[in-house]
Specification:
An 8-stranded mixed sheet has the order 1-7-6-5-2-3-4-8, sandwiched between helices. A 5-stranded mixed barrel has the order 9-10-11-13-12. 29% of the residues lie in helices and 32% in strands. The N and C termini lie far apart (108 Å). By secondary structure, the chain is of the alpha+beta class. It is elongated and about 110 Å long. It has 2 domains: 159 residues, 2-Layer Sandwich (Endonuclease, Chain A), CATH 3.30.870; 93 residues, OB fold (Dihydrolipoamide Acetyltransferase, E2P).
Length: 307
């Protein structure tokens, strides 16, 4: 009876080594960081396909979320976020909440879109007060990072010359995931607003907002009016113009809201001090080629006791 021959030990080791080397090469190719440019209208199909492919986690950090027209590209992206949340993907969306210097256009619009997403099970937040979140970032499954200049708006997705990069894997992806998570922890919930129907028929709650908050809510109603306001001095800066004239800038903070204040000279005030400021409020003020929004040009300032 013929004796069976088995491969030699060297042959077995060589075969096993080849398998191991092949596996390592595959992992190196499959998991290596890769980057490519995504410019102009190319952003939309890339973002669309990333959202469709999501299996575990979607993080969206965006300065502006415009309201969509039914069936347009923007509406499709929002629908894909909603569909992902419904199939069990963790979807988190964090946007700019609306700072005063943004002239009131960003915050309300973002919140209306966030309310839509929230109803579909998407986790939504806005950034903390005093922070301007100008970022535009989409992160999918901790693997794909789409990062650049594109806001989620009709023109950004169809006409604008935007520049972005798509990064697969690598350190930058994990760093941006950690960055998003840190912002999320600081973020604020989106408060639902009463709209129509039974809620709209309720008696309005008494207005307990401060005068500064009311001014910033309707700046055009106070344009060029003489006002007297009390608050605490924040972010005090005393400077000189190019011609050598002294001037002072600070924010007047009453605990609910803060307002930009400009006045000539360097009055003897300190950071954190309570003051009474009299002056003229401008919703828009143009000085040469520059425009200033929601600013009080002070004519008189005096220290007061804390209310």
């Amino acid at each position: 009876m013929a004796r069976r021959r088995f491969p030699s030990r060297r042959v077995v080791l060589a075969f096993a080594g080849g398998l191991l080397l092949g596996a390592l090469l595959y992992l190196c190719v499959a998991l290596r960081p890769a980057t490519r440019a995504v410019n102009g209208p190319a952003y939309y199909p890339v973002a669309r396909d990333l959202l469709k492919s999501a299996r575990r986690h979607i993080r969206l950090l965006m300065f502006e979320l415009f309201e969509a027209r039914p069936g347009d590209r923007l509406d499709t992206l929002y629908s894909l976020l909603e569909q992902a949340a419904r199939r069990g993907v963790v979807v988190q969306v964090l946007t700019e909440g609306g700072e005063e210097h943004l002239r009131g256009r960003v915050g309300p619009r973002n919140r209306r879109v966030l309310e839509r997403l929230k109803q579909a099970g998407v986790a939504v937040r806005v950034d903390r007060r005093g922070q301007t979140t100008h970022a535009k970032m989409l992160l999918v499954d901790d693997r794909w990072l789409l990062l650049g200049s594109t806001n989620w708006s009709y023109y950004a997705l169809t006409h604008n010359l935007e520049t972005n990069v798509l990064i697969r894997n690598g350190l930058a992806v994990h760093q941006q995931a950690a960055f998003f998570d840190s912002l999320w922890q600081q973020g604020l919930p989106v408060v639902e607003q009463e709209t129509t129907g039974v809620q709209a028929s309720r008696q309005p709650a008494p207005d307990t907002s401060s005068l500064i908050a009311r001014i910033l809510a309707r700046p055009e109603a106070y344009h060029e009016k003489h006002l007297a306001l009390i608050g605490r001095v924040r972010n005090l800066r005393q400077k000189f113009s190019r011609r050598g004239n002294p001037y002072t800038l600070f924010r007047l903070d009453d605990g609910q809201a803060s307002l930009k204040v400009y006045l000539r000279g360097h009055p003897p005030i300190q950071e954190g001090q309570w003051v009474r400021v009299e002056g003229v409020f401008y919703a828009v003020k143009q000085v040469g080629r520059l425009k200033f929004y929601n600013e009080l040009t002070a004519q008189r300032i005096e220290p007061v006791e804390e209310p």
